[in-house]
């Protein structure tokens, strides 16, 4: 049955709960019944004309609390992160102004007509492109998540951190990215057969450098010019950004200025001192590019309160760097039983996938969990399994099942199982 058949109150109950009649008769989903006469009174905003046009729209001032949560590094200028408030958003696309941020040295202010992209190294010819030059190539667009490799790393702490879902897992966002397929420009430059890596460099003060295997670079990478229909926001890489679908956020170099075709990785700080981790065996994990499947329940989630027993819709996001989300299973009893949530269509590969499931809360304390399964059959692990595999030196790539406890007052907190 498609989403449409399941819309409305009856579908909600039928699709999500056995014994729907029982829930309906308990009256938990009713709207408040107002006397009809009250509807006839016109509110003040219907008695005078509204406000004037604006050149660029802004969210309602009443939504002022829906903001990125900033965590700035006080010792390095412009270094830090800001988190997407996942718990306050719906659907799958992150509003551009709420896309998470990770800057190593601030946001450069680049005049668009002075920006250049250089492609050089093991190529038949070196090429430079202005933004206007790039705009003459065919454009492709995809809805894709970007997730920092350090997202969710509070999960490695011994005690569950008490903060909102977005401040735990919101170094991940999803946008429509439009730009020129990188493969086209690599073809034009003429890549030497000895080449195996592509080194990308940003035009920020940190001059962030990363190495991308050439096979990935010439497969599905994009040189993005647009984000959610408009030019990329300054903080997300204006005017040009490399998009490496499904792989660690750091590879998605912002303010992209240089691509060097090479036969070895550059071994920059971000791939040696960072993003390399010791395993219990003493071996190091390195170049762990793909982001594994993850899911998080955004409603209800920590900091939110359920107002009494009855029917609620559990809502959340799932994504995988290996492709499409095949299923999301939800447990409302701490993991004893699991049921499949409904996925919002279309469930696109390498994009946020929204899941929803009806739940009748009995009013007794319980733990909510979700686990993502992607199209490769990969199943999001329990925290204990992740720690058994990775040991206690982990900092990056934490993707264990998140557990939200609902207490008898309906308050939601973060727990580990
Ligand atoms: N030039 C440049 N590119 C960069 C970074 C940076 O600081 N400078 N940060 C990287 C990291 S670690 C991540 S997770 C993503 C963050 O992208 P966003 O700020 O658009 O969310 O950009 C990557 N690209
Ligand atoms: Mo990152």
Q: How would you characterize the overall build of this protein?
A:
- The protein is mostly beta strands and 417 residues long.
- The protein is globular, with a radius of gyration of 24 Å.
- A 5-stranded mixed sheet has the order 5-4-13-8-9. Strands 6, 7, 10, 11 and 12 form a 5-stranded antiparallel sheet that branches. The protein has a 5-stranded antiparallel sheet with strand order 19-18-22-23-24, with no helix packed on it.
- The chain has 8 helices and 24 strands.
- The two termini are 33 Å apart.
- The structure holds ligand MTE and molybdenum atom.
How is this fold's topology laid out?
Blueprint: H1 8-16, H2 20-26, H3 36-39, E1 69-72, E2 80-83, E3 101-103, E4 116-121, E5 127-130, H4 131-134, E6 140-147, H5 165-169, E7 172-181, H6 182-189, E8 197-202, E9 209-213, H7 214-217, E10 222-227, E11 230-231, E12 241-243, E13 256-262, E14 277-278, E15 284-285, E16 294-299, E17 310-319, E18 325-331, E19 339-340, E20 342-343, E21 353-361, E22 366-374, H8 383-390, E23 403-406, E24 412-415
The protein binds ligand MTE and molybdenum atom.
Quick overview:
With 417 residues, this protein is mainly beta. 12% of the residues lie in helices and 30% in strands.
């Amino acid at each position: 049955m498609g989403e449409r058949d399941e819309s409305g109150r009856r579908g909600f109950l039928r699709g999500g709960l056995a014994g729907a009649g029982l829930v309906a008769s308990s009256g938990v989903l009713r709207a408040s019944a107002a006397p009809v006469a009250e509807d006839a009174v016109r509110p003040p905003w219907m008695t005078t004309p509204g406000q004037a046009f604006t050149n660029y729209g802004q969210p309602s001032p009443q939504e002022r609390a829906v903001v990125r949560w900033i965590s700035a590094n006080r010792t390095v200028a412009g270094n830090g992160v800001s988190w997407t408030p996942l718990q306050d958003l719906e659907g799958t696309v992150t509003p551009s102004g709420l896309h998470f941020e990770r800057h190593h040295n601030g946001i450069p202010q680049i005049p668009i007509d002075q920006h250049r992209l250089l492609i050089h190294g093991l190529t038949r010819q070196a090429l430079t492109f202005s933004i206007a030059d790039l705009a003459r190539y065919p454009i492709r667009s995809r809805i894709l998540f970007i997730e920092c490799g350090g997202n969710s790393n509070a999960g490695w702490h011994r005690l569950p951190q008490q903060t909102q879902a977005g401040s735990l897992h919101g170094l991940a966002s999803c946008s429509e990215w439009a730009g020129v397929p990188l493969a086209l420009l690599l073809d034009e430059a003429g890549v030497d057969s000895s080449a195996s890596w592509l080194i990308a460099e940003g035009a920020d003060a940190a001059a962030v450098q990363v190495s991308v295997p050439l096979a990935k670079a010439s497969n599905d990478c994009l040189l993005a010019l647009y984000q959610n229909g408009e030019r990329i926001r300054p903080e997300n890489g204006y005017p040009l950004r490399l998009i490496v679908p499904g792989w660690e956020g750091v590879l998605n170099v912002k303010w992209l200025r240089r691509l060097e075709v090479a036969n070895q990785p550059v071994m920059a700080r971000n791939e040696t001192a960072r993003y390399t981790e010791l395993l219990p065996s003493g071996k190091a994990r390195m170049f762990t590019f793909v982001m594994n499947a993850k899911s998080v329940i955004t409603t209800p989630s920590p900091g939110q309160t359920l107002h009494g027993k009855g029917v609620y819709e559990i809502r959340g996001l799932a994504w995988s760097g290996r492709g499409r989300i095949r299923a999301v299973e939800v447990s409302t009893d701490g993991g004893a039983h699991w049921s499949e949530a409904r996925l919002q269509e279309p469930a696109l590969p390498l994009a946020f996938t929204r899941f929803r499931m009806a739940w009748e809360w009995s009013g007794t304390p319980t733990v909510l969990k979700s686990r993502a399964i992607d199209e490769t059959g990969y199943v999001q692990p329990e925290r204990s399994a992740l720690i058994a595999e990775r040991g206690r030196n982990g900092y990056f790539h934490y993707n264990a099942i998140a557990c939200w406890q609902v207490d008898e007052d309906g308050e939601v907190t973060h727990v580990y199982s």
